[in-house]
Write a structure and sequence with these properties.
The structure is a single chain. The protein is an alpha/beta fold. Helices cover about 35% and strands about 15% of the residues. Strand 9, helix 9 and strand 10 form a beta-alpha-beta unit. The longest helix has 21 residues.
Length: about 350
Amino acid sequence: MSHYESLAALPISISGYELEERDRTYGSFTRPSTVIHLHGGGEEGQGEDVVYDVLDHIAHRDAGPVHDLSAPSTLGELCELVGSLDLFPGAAPLMDASAHYRRWAFESAALDLALRQAGLALHAALGLEPRPLSFVCSTRLSGSGDASSVGPVRDRLERYPDLRFKLDPENDWDAKLIAALQGLAGVDVLDLKGHYRGTPVDVDTDPELYAAVAEAFPNAWIEDPDLEHPGAREALAPHAERITWDAPLHSLADITGLETEPRAINSKPSRFGSLEELLSVYEHCAERGIEIYGGGQGEVGPGRGQIQYLASLFHAHTSNDIAPSGYNDPSVPADLPTSPMDPVPSQTGFHWAE
């Protein structure tokens, strides 16, 4: 029996749901978030909607709980129903990927509820043991139009000297800054953002930048390069075995359809949308020996703990970009958990105490 089949058979009873605003502002940037609270049988399940556009969240919350989710009697039936619903009634999402993000919010809340109603924790239902979770910190070296500097890395290392990083090389990275980073930080992943267009994190494809960072950090995964650019493909040819993918992956078919089977991928649960698709990705990668490192979506509610929980079960030892959310705070709070982080699953449900 597959992992999904084990979970899909769980009974579920839903009497209704509520939507809660959890938007959080970091300086000039607001990370919108809506928590879905599913109710039934005296229990509550939670999931987090990590759609990036504020207007999509406002429309969702203004519309309120418009869907009748009371008919399904098993988690599998509920997931099938959610997959058939228009979760953006009245207007299509501003980003196609948002449909996956919102579906994950409902399905993760349903998983939490079904497990609580059954008196089970996720790891017990799957027959797996949570393991200490390794993580890296993802941070950009520029903000609000400022030039890139090592400041954000240095600030975090002053508090947490063993912290390792996933970094986004930007077009203003020069030889001096790259050399400073080499002497300062352990870098596990270089996210080249080669598949983003029209977003605040766009990076122009620069073969010289690609070659410089690949050579400077010879042990780092090279994530999401723009290989449609002939010069970029040539620059990374000597480092092809380190190329990994994130943004283009929304399904198992996207992974099996890659030009070359990767040695590793970045798995964001919300990017795959459905619980069934996510678990099929885990099983495929285990069978093929493809390393998985988890990725976050800037979660500020229960979603962060949920992806940490999944990582502790399926890929605990890798360079997971799912540090506790306090590492995203420019003030760098004291007393945050350090890597590897002890597992803290709840006694029942799909919940991880950050």
